[in-house]
Amino acid sequence: MKRIGVFTSGGDAPGMNAAIRAVTRTAIQNQLEVIGFIGGYSGILQNQFRLLQARDMANILQRGGTILKAGRCAEFFRPEGRALAARNLKEAGIDGLICIGGDGSFTGARALFLEHQIAVVGIPGTIDNDVAGTDFTVGFDTAVNTALHLIDKIRDTADSHDRLFLVEVMGRNSGFIAAYVGLAAGAEEVLVSDFPVPVDSVIKRIQEAIQRGKRSSIIVVAEGEKSGRVYDLAEQFRKRAGLEAKVAILGHVQRGGSPTAADRILASRMGAMAVDALIKGHRDVMVGVQAGQFVLVPLELAIQKNQKQTPQEFLKLVHYLAI
Ligand code: ADP
Fold first, then answer.
1. 322 C-alpha to center of ligand 1: Å?
2. How far apart are CA 303 and CA 132, in angstroms?
3. Would you tell me which of 126, 278, 314, 322 could form a disulfide with 179, CB atoms 3.0–4.6 Å apart?
4. Is 243 exposed, middle or buried (0-12, 13-18, 19+ CB in 10 A)?
């Protein structure tokens, strides 16, 4: 193995730069050349790449986003697109490819391996923490902390004005951010799509809290299929029970910012391990962390849908502690 490629794909996540740095410098330590493809799979299809040097990695560890740009690529869903990508990779002399992204990106990477025998290794990078086979993904801890700081600020107003707040956090098909931030912020209730709760039960819980003397409450809601459903929820509260709720949608601030120490460490360890795995001949795997141990997980497992539910014990503990 002489030359490897690396790219970031799907949505960006804080810590992706730390992973790129670890991949590049580990490869250089092992006398490998590193090619960075720009803009995810599109960069491979359009031959947009550059040689990455150790010095290019200076001062990116603490930066959010990704210096390689991220993105989605419709052409890669088609076999012809993947065939072109494989040709380009072979022409560029790439012996192994490291994909930093989520389960969608890994599905594409796996197809590239199965159809064209490209040696791929994945590093899970997404704020949603919705990749199976790893307890944590790069970016999740930062997103939780960003949301937490914002909710702490909202709580000041909720408390000063005796208000009920509905706060929408990111997580399309995943309730991880909501569950973690809900517990950390002392929310009254956390609403996620994989454990749906009837509106009337939520209203009853809030009414009971008011009767117990609670004057302000925060309900954390995972965005689900479409951002903005918290407005419908606030409307239902008003119509069904005359409860006035303020709405805050945290939005894309959760995707950016300087990665936390936990994310930088996770990304650095995963980046180094991914290169090591390629050198040792592993293919079609993702680097994961399970119960504190770093492991290689077959991509086939990592891309399975609905394998990773929102931790229900978090939701129960939120209720238990919100008396
Ligand atoms: P994430 O990796 O964060 O889950 P996406 O699901 O948007 O993000 O996937 C990123 C890109 O990966 C897609 O735009 C596409 O190029 C590629 N991809 C996703 N799913 C597949 C698939 N089933 N087959 C081939 N390529 C895919």
1. 39
2. 7
3. 314
4. middle
From the list 122, 97, 119, the residue with the least C-alpha distance to 43 is 97
Q: Is the pLDDT of residue 307 over 90?
A: no
Q: Is 126 in the pocket of ligand 1 (CB under 6 A)?
A: yes
The pLDDT tens digits for 48-67 are 999 999 999 999 999 999 99
Domains and CATH numbers, the chain: 3-139+259-302 (3.40.50.450), 140-256 (3.40.50.460)
> Which residues, in sequence order, are CB contacts of 247 under 8 Å at separation 6+?
165, 166, 168, 230, 231, 234
| 196-200 CB contacts, 8 Å cutoff, 24+ apart | 199/233, 199/236, 199/237, 199/240, 200/240
**Catalytic choice (12, 128, 130, 141):** 128
User: Residues with Cβ < 8 Å from 214, sequence gap 6 or more?
Assistant: 188
Q: Which ligand 1 atom sits nearest the alpha carbon of residue 10?
A: 8
Cα-to-centroid distance, 108 and ligand 1 (Å): 6
Instruction: Tell me the whole-structure pTM to 2 decimals.
Output: 0.97
Outline where DSSP puts E strands in 188-239.
189-191, 217-222
Residue range 252-284, pLDDT digits in tens: 999 999 999 999 999 999 999 999 999 999 999
The H-or-E segment that residue 37 falls in is strand 33-37
Whether ligand 1 lies within 6 angstroms of the CB of 129 is answered as: no
Q: Give the distance (Å) from ligand 1 centre to CA of residue 269.
A: 24
Q: Is 41 a pocket residue for ligand 1 (Cβ < 6 Å)?
A: yes
Cα 149 to the center of its chain, rounded Å: 18
